[in-house]
Amino acid sequence: MSDTSMRAVVQQTLGGSEVLSVQQVSRPEPLPTEVLVKVYAAGVNPVDWKTRAGGGMAGVLGEPPFTLGWDVSGVVEKVGFGVTSWQEGDEVYGMPWFPRAAGGYAEYVTAPARQFARKPSSVSHEQAAAVPLAALTAWQVLVDTAHVQAGRRVLIHAAAGGVGHLAVQFARHLGAHVIGTARSSRHEWLTKLGADELVDYTAVRFEDAVTDVDVVVDLIGDLHENTSTRSLEVLRPGGLLVAVPAGVSPELAVAAEAKGIRVTPFLVEPDGPALTAIGALIDNGEVVVEVEEVFALEQAADAHERGEANRTRGKLVLRVAS
Ligand SMILES: NC(=O)c1ccc[n+]([C@@H]2O[C@H](COP(=O)([O-])OP(=O)(O)OC[C@H]3O[C@@H](n4cnc5c(N)ncnc54)[C@H](OP(=O)(O)O)[C@@H]3O)[C@@H](O)[C@H]2O)c1
Q: What is the DSSP string of 41-80?
């Protein structure tokens, strides 16, 4: 392969997983303050398949062709003018550019140097690539948005998913009483990760089993069985519901206000320093990232289909180089 081209998953139109194909495209060049990263692995997130089909961040990316993917783990290949934080050969991971296009499903990405952090040294590139978007979401919700402190009661919906299983561990790290919703086959694993109480949402209505919650990390939304609106029933007055996916009822804010509950939308942001803190928790063994399966770059469509089934335990990842 030439120095000026690379393999990338490209889509020419919006649509189903069949629009994804590996093509030869131009390799990007870092501008001043940017780094060129050789990607070893790219994480797969629900926003990827939503965007592929015209939802998610499609409005930000504009018309195809484009390359999906925000989570990357790799090695700095080249630094742009003025970069002092990284050198060629450094192992880094990050979620650059979000919500603008990052083109993570590719052999190389360029992005602002400070949107990366040093890759946690105790894990593989595949595991590291599973971390950024899910972990930054969990971290920015619990730490920066909800300011969770020891003793707070935190309910995490979809605790077994990519964001959820990391949120369980961060909430435990913060000293919270951690409650999660997940099917019963996930309970033993989530208890080991730090959940104090688990509700099998397929058997029990969570609002019949949970009470006096300070913070709901809502990773489901009202589109699925009015989960956001039903969550108001478990929150105490003064509590906070962080609505992570788009799709809450237009009446939610009014209903919450009537109960003295706060509701906020949320969108994750690139954050190198938070990834450094998260990487330290991974390297000291306090936080583990669960990767359900690693797919080849050519299997991006299979990875999307798996994710869209909405049963993923932890994360899905694409291997780009080895
Ligand atoms: N706004 C933002 O910045 C932002 C950032 C990240 C993610 N998100 C959104 O947040 C959502 C979650 O993301 P994710 O990456 O964690 O997704 P994910 O990994 O694909 O979630 C899959 C998990 O959802 C669980 N699940 C499905 N339906 C459920 C229900 N009704 N109740 C409880 N659990 C249920 C499944 O667990 P079981 O096997 O137990 O059923 C599965 O483990 C997505 O909609 C994503 O787009 C938004």
A: EEEE-HHHHHHHTT-TTHHHH-SSPB----EEEEEEEEE-
